[in-house]
User: Which sequence fits this backbone?
């Protein structure tokens, strides 16, 4: 039986014609690498170069971060997020981020957040906080990915954070009808050396600034509350929003201003995520009025890395109620660049307060590591054994590389 196409087989030329049997390294050395291989190698080199540039940029803007949660353990009322490299998360999610403005030269992106179910309008609950913790990262990345070219500035990034909180509120109220509780949130986003913060509710986000230096003595750092102008009805803007929607304030326990909804429930919290009984028609509950909103207070700060600005502290609601900001600043100064110890000390002190016997005290501490201080993050190198002969070090390396055991006898030095 004859097979057609014999003549076409004679004219066939493989892509490696003339190079068959020649090692790839030899072709590179001779400069005779086939075009398709050359393009592949160039793409690999470009990718490796970009990766090195990203690592170098991230190495200059480093943080030491940790979190501790103490107290109530039966319910996860507080959820926290720590993302040291938000660019990698975006790449894995196949989300393209802006390349100009504040995002230029692949500026490092870092995200720290805390959602607290104890900052709800009514009783504490874990459901809204869990929904927000799962949805924040993808929603924030999508918001940043659609920033128009030429508008990659502080105003638009703050708008992305506000939109993220709005999206989280809609996510809880519309897509999770079984979730009736609410939560507060504190988010810190680092874009290069720019810090963007957003706070909603009674949880707290504090920026620690270095105190003045007097001779050789450094004063205790100063705590700046990044969400002081929201979350309670003493804020004129929140009180006006309540009154414009048919609500009224009245004094409550401890001098707090409170309000009540048509169902008779009371609250001292003026902003929250979720809490469908306080969100009017958006909450889907008949007869409810919109007395609360989910708009966060946003700020933008130029961080002078570990020079003027020392650290960030994100805390759940019971912590600032029990620990004054001066004590937090003192703890941050005492446990310099030890975030685990600092966050543990703050959470432990808060958990010991009598009013927090049934509360969950969570604290995230983020230290800004000095740009030229690698000893803070990198462990000390092991010292070489001076009394061991050099051939044995070589033998050990060879054995780890898979060389057979008898090489030990071949390379063993002779006794003198």
Assistant:
């Amino acid at each position: 039986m004859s097979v057609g196409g014999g003549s076409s087989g004679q004219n066939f030329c493989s892509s490696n014609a003339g190079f068959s049997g020649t090692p790839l390294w030899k072709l590179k050395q001779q400069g005779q690498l086939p075009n398709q291989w050359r393009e592949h190698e160039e793409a690999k080199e470009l990718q490796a170069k970009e990766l090195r540039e990203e690592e170098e940029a991230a190495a200059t803007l480093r943080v030491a971060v940790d979190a501790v949660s103490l107290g109530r353990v039966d319910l996860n009322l507080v959820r926290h997020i720590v993302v040291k490299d938000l660019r990698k998360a975006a790449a894995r999610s196949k989300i393209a981020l802006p390349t100009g403005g504040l995002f230029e030269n692949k500026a490092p992106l870092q995200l720290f957040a805390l959602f607290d179910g104890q900052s709800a309008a009514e009783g504490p609950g874990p459901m809204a906080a869990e929904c927000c913790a799962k949805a924040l990262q993808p929603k924030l990345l999508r918001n940043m990915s659609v920033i128009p070219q030429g508008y990659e500035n502080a105003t638009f990034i703050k708008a992305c954070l506000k939109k993220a909180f709005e999206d989280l509120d809609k996510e809880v109220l519309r897509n999770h009808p079984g979730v009736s509780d609410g939560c507060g949130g504190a988010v810190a986003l680092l874009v290069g050396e720019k810090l963007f913060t957003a706070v909603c509710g009674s949880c707290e986000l504090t920026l620690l600034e270095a105190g003045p230096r007097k001779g050789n003595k450094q004063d205790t750092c100063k705590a700046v509350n990044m969400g002081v102008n929201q979350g309670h009805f003493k804020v004129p803007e929140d009180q006006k929003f309540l009154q414009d929607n048919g609500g009224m304030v009245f004094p409550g326990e401890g001098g707090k201003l409170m309000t009540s909804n048509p169902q008779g429930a009371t609250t001292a919290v003026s902003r929250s995520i979720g809490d469908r009984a306080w969100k009017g028609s958006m909450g889907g509950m008949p007869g409810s009025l919109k007395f609360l909103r989910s708009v966060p207070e946003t700020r933008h700060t130029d961080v002078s890395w570990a020079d003027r600005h020392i650290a960030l502290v994100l805390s759940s609601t019971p912590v600032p109620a029990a620990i004054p900001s001066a004590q937090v600043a003192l703890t941050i100064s005492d446990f310099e660049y030890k975030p685990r110890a600092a966050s543990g000390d703050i959470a432990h002190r808060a958990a010991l307060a009598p009013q927090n016997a049934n509360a969950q005290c969570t604290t995230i501490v983020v230290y800004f590591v000095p740009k030229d201080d690698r000893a803070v993050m990198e462990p000390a190198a092991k010292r070489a054994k001076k009394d061991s002969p050099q051939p044995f070090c070589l033998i050990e390396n060879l054995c780890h590389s898979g060389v057979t055991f008898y090489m030990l006898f071949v390379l063993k030095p002779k006794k003198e």
Q: What stands out?
A: The two ends are 79 Å apart (CA to CA). The chain has two domains: 54-228+293-376, 382-416.
